[in-house]
Amino acid sequence: MTKTTAPSTTPSPTPGDTQSSKGGSTNPRAEFIVAALNMSWQLAIVVLVPIIAGYELDKKLDTVPSLTILGFLLAMVGMALVVWRQMQLLGPENKGERS
Question: Where are the domains of the chain?
Answer without folding.
Answer: 43-91
